[in-house]
Amino acid sequence: MELTLPDISFDQHLLHSGAVTMEDLEVARKQSERTGKTIHEILLEFGLLSTRKYAENVSSFFKVPFLDLSEVDVSMVQELPLSVKFIRQNQILPLEMTSNVMKIAVKDPLKINVYDSLRLILNREMELVIADATEIDRRIEELYGSGTSSMKMILNDMEEEDLEILGKEEDQDVDTLRDMASEAPVIKLVNLLFSQAVEVGASDIHIEPFEGDLKIRYRIDGVLHDQEAPPKRFQAAIISRIKILSGLNIAEHRLPQDGRIRLRIMGQKIDVRVSTVPTLHGESVVMRLLDQSSMFIELESLGFPQSHLKIFQQLIHHPHGMILVTGPTGSGKTTTLYAALDKINQPDKKIITVEDPVEYQLKGVNQIQVNTKIGLSFASGLRHIVRQDPDVIMVGEIRDFETAEIAVQSALTGHLVFSTVHTNDAPGAVTRLQDMGVENYLIASCLDGVLAQRLVRTICPDCKEPTRVDQNALAEMEIENGNAEDAVVYQGVGCRKCSNTGYRGRMGIYELFVISDHLRNLILEKSSANVLKREARKLGMKTLREDGWNKVKQGVTTIEEVMRVTQEEEII
């Protein structure tokens, strides 16, 4: 077959397509000159270019069709007169064979000699399609190997004696750790951890050392899942590699450290927050993955019931006052606040935020990053920004009396203040402020509303099927007038697209506590959270479980999922 060669170089093609930046190419060129590897090898190794994006650009550059192997059944091509060694070495995957043509998926269309050899061996013309090299390797192992995983393939290429660690991590020489962390297989292992996490939509990667093994877990849709892990002997090398990437001290094993990595994986810009803490059997590492492209979601897309959405939009357009969002860590509070700020972000308003950390950059908003090392806390930051003539202030979290006091005073002096607190439900936010030492009359004067929220996993649409209502679970939810007899509920039975969990993606459930005159009087009387909740429900407030039950009836989630995220427990 003949290839069409464009007038520009492949590097220029990558640049023009947006797959890489000029900065990426410069980094790769310098590394290429230093190591002798090609620029494209460096781009792939450093995660600056995903194998998928590389394949798509090869396809468009050479005008050879691209094929997504994840959607192709290749089980019919195992019986061919080709050695597995030949197939693996050349990264080719035979797909379909007719009397005249053999269709094969390849990574590199320029291996003309290989394809000529195939043409002679099979006595057929070759039809090439470009595919993701990672997918090619995976399918080859499915067909010709024993189902060996990507991690096992990397481990099989390692020489055990080259990287075996004896003794404790703190006993290792720094240069030795750095050399081990720079080994190509270790780099591939760490890159694999990141790429697999992004592929399955994980929000966190947990690397946990135990006495006899190393455990890897991904948090997917709020739930931790065990993953395939490398042997214990690679622990020091892997953790050292992560420390180098995040700018941490690889010689320090006794103290917690925090760092940051910026990556581009599968075409996505990922900001990774790294935390290490010493444990009995080595350092535990947790990495929070923040996808900058998907962090921001519009207010209308968060899952608000229409009644809640209308009232919440009215609240956020108030000229002054305080609006709180409450819920445990990971319940989407920051995302809701970003969506609210974006909704009111206008040229005639000055918006300033104090955050820890700044998770998403909002255009036209002045955002301040908390830095406790230099004394820049929520309280000190808030104290200074009130002198910046803001119209709207967002404080990442109210943790203490000092922050609460300044936030309340700001709301009373003509500012609209957004913040978060940690409570079980919306009325509990009043009690939390009281516990911090804020006077009842101040809370009653400035607080306009509290939004409690949780994130529930949504049923996978590809394996969704109707099921019967679990009456016991429904009774445990304490839903009044649930109309369970008439309700049709759904569950996910599990499929490949949802990793057999039955769930894919998440959505919010909400409890909106709007402060009416009656409730202000109750706050002045220092009524308990239970009294406030009872009176608010009389005025029409829907609880988290009631909103969850409505989403169950809509076929969005399950009773079990609503129960999981709304269990009454003390939140610190």
Question: What's this entry about, in short?
Answer:
By secondary structure, the protein is α/β, with parallel strands linked by helices. It is 38% helix and 22% strand.
How would you describe the overall organization of this protein?
The protein is an alpha/beta fold. A seven-stranded mixed beta sheet has the order 12-11-13-14-10-15-18, sandwiched between helices. Helix 1 (10-17) packs across helix 4 (51-62), helix 10 crosses helix 12 and helix 11 (184-199) crosses helix 12 (235-245).
Mean pLDDT: 84
Termini gap: 66 Å
Radius of gyration: 28 Å
Give me the count of strands.
18
Proportion of residues in extended strands:
15-25%
Major sheet: size, sense and barrel closure? 7 strands, mixed
Low-pLDDT residue spans: 159-167
General shape: globular
Helix content: 25-40%
